[in-house]
Amino acid sequence: MKNAERIQGLEGPDESSIPTLPKRFMGLRAAIVTNNSRVKSFATELGVTPLELDDFFGQQSLNELSLSRLLLLLGFKEGKILEVSGFDLLFIHVGLSGKEGAQDVEALGTKQIKLVNELTGSILQRAQPGTDILSRLHFSLVVSYGALSDGEDRNSTSLLSQQSVNDNLSLLIPRQSYSTRGANFAPDIRNYSPMLIAQWQEAVTRKDTAISFSFKEFKERGANLAIPAERFLHEVAFKLWKAPKYGA
User: Can you tell which superkingdom this protein's organism belongs to (predicted)?
Assistant: First the structure.
């Protein structure tokens, strides 16, 4: 949100020092489904088409029609792949719109969790073996835990244990790509993570044994450790053949 507020002070998209997604990633066509006006404004500055969440998910609930409409935006119809699609990448932002009262937040949060679970399960159900969608669909799920306050323990949201940092044997292990810039160590990379990401793409992404979204589960059973948040879009663009590979 801070980046969105900062960008709103610019004269216009042409004056922004931040390149749009189409410019960064070989003409990538992206849309975002959200109710948050700030997110819509920020997305527009980045060349992402904003769409209204309520137009797809009435009462924060999922049905077959809404799912079919979402998949149609990506060029999937009735299990088949269309020759033309509206977008290459679709973001679905399930979060607060900024208009809720304090008494509404908890109830809305329960609905949002239910919607995310239903959406994830329904998409994976559509991409069954033997379907055309299976070979063409990339799915990323990002769960944000928000910013840490000054009094919170950063180790509770870190995918790197203190033991691995202090262990002398760690000097023999190559650094992860996220901790370097070129051939140099990046000193300003934080090791605690405010977001968890799971990705799924048939025959492409690594498989692990994590069964829930928690830092403990990801640390013990996850396939990877971490990447900077700023590189997440690059990683997705690579899987869509819109960017070169990042890291090892």
Answer: Eukaryota
